[in-house]
Amino acid sequence: NAGVTQTPKFQVLKTGQSMTLQCAQDMNHEYMSWYRQDPGMGLRLIHYSVGAGITDQGEVPNGYNVSRSTTEDFPLRLLSAAPSQTSVYFCASRQLRNTEAFFGQGTRLTVV
Amino acid sequence: DAKTTQPPSMDCAEGRAANLPCNHSTISGNEYVYWYRQIHSQGPQYIIHGLKNNETNEMASLIITEDRKSSTLILPHATLRDTAVYYCIVRGNSGGSNYKLTFGKGTLLTVNP
Hints:
Chain A is mainly β. Helix content of chain A is 0%, strand content 50%. Chain B is an all-beta fold.
């Protein structure tokens, strides 16, 4: 049981480049979400999904796109990276009812 | 979702109980109290959650006051590996708020040898 898998673990981008952060879970969880964490701060919600084909914005969605074509995968796309998007990104999943969320180990992104 | 207030930092001696407080005075009747922790550079890890009764699992105990306006997470025998940021989160179970975990800045617990 792999849990929540994020790839890549580290990435350096140039300003204006695009990329996709991958997140996959093998627990058949309906709910998946993306957070970013900046130094000295808590996690802030970017986007979330309650099932395949359904996504919604969180607290800080600007500059990010998501899609949910399958239950297992929830990629996060940066269309034109900016230095302000330098952060650590965490993906999480859980069942919809009140249960624990499982987090990936994070992707550390630097935009130069 | 109800807002939570936690002290920014706490210290605890190794082997002693760590008691981490959380105030959530605006909690509503259908909101649960969740605790997560984040060890440096890792993804957050679920610890425990409860609605109104005290809860215990292999990691910790959760004590919720009768009026539900505050709670305490108890690590009975803290070890150096328990050094982490601990987040207290209140989450509803109706409508859109059911889906979101809103993290504050948490409490940095440092366990000292």
